[in-house]
Amino acid sequence: MTTPVTIVGAGLGGLTLARVLHLHDVPVTVYDAEDSAQARTQGGQLDLHEHNGQRALAIAGLTQEYRAIIHPGGGAQRVLDQQGTVLAEIPDDGSLARPEALRGDIRRILLESLPAGTVQWGKKLVEATPLGGGRHELTFADGSTVTTEILVGAEGTWSRVRALLSDEKPTYAGMSYIDTYLHDVDNRHPDAAKAVGDGAMYALIPGKGFLAHRETNNIIHTYVVLNRPIEWFADIDFADADATKTRIAAEFEGWAPELTALITDADTTPILRSIHQLPDHHRWPRTPGVTLLGDAAHVTVPGGEGANIAMLDGAELGEAIAAHPGDVETAFAVYEEVMFARSEAEAVAAHETIDLILGDGAPNGLVNLFNGTDQDAN
Hints:
The structure is a single chain. By secondary structure, the chain is α/β, with parallel strands linked by helices. Helices cover 34% and strands 24% of the residues. It contains 13 helices and 17 strands. It has helices spanning 12-23, 53-59, 63-67, 103-112, 185-188, 190-196, 230-234, 241-249, 257-264, 295-298, 306-323, 328-358, 364-371; strands at residues 5-8, 28-31, 45-47, 77-80, 86-90, 100-102, 119-120, 125-132, 135-140, 145-148, 151-153, 171-182, 200-205, 208-215, 219-226, 271-277, 290-292. The strands form four sheets. A seven-stranded mixed β-sheet has the order 5-4-13-14-15-12-16, sandwiched between helices. A five-stranded parallel β-sheet has the order 7-2-1-11-17, with helices on one face. A hairpin with a 4-residue loop joins β9 and β10 (145-148). α6 crosses α9. The longest helix is centred in the C-terminal third of the chain and has 31 residues, at 328-358.
């Protein structure tokens, strides 16, 4: 196949697609808004699952590289109450069913698997314009333009390529995460380190709580979860780290100090991550020359599958393009049929997961899940 594929977005999904295309000798260029691969940290740990994320890396020929970056012990999980008492706990069993690895490391092995120059950095897309016949013109913030014949939007929640296919725009899901880090935790934050343990820690009540994870290099990464209107967060000056910590910690008055320390003692400025979603049944008519993958296609609430299915989207789309040389419309149609059904099912499941961990029965639903009981979470 000689017609190049243009991908917008060098996240995990877009890079998985690029890698699979490269394996099949399909020319591909990825454009990304960031100035370089090191422009920012790439978030926390991900547990890649055998049936989607790991399957995608196997299709990409990167299983060995992936296993080299797994965080041993990171799969342990525990649930605490507001006073720090352990309610349920499961160890890391050492299996490879859903091991933990840093998102940044997964992205790195994907980038390293591509020829130099495949990713064009500093290319922030500002507009995508149809030219007819499946061709599109991309205009970047630096003033440059590119004409595409095969275009894939992989640039996440606020995708500009999406507008070529769908009028839907993500809406606020009613919840936000506040992102914090503690460094050198065993020496500098021993109480918080003991509370979190070796893997993931959940301390949740209806509508709020802590999702924390021990990462490599003696780091604890925490998402403080709050179900609040988006306007509530607009009243907080997140550029003022101390004031932000004080305001967020006030929502957890009376909680154990080793838990509130995940906010008050944070070694980084808290970052707001408001959660947005597309409709569960988000679809579009087959549109010549363009498709979407990952959050650009089906962003939803965090249910533990977002990165996994983005990578599987990329891998399966790459296989479809390679299997139909010269017939990208058939390739896109085959891919979209499977992707639409999967993404809808995963969106429904994600809402069920959020209800389990943050709904009216919290934390009982998660405790019962860990304990293997069938008791009513309410």
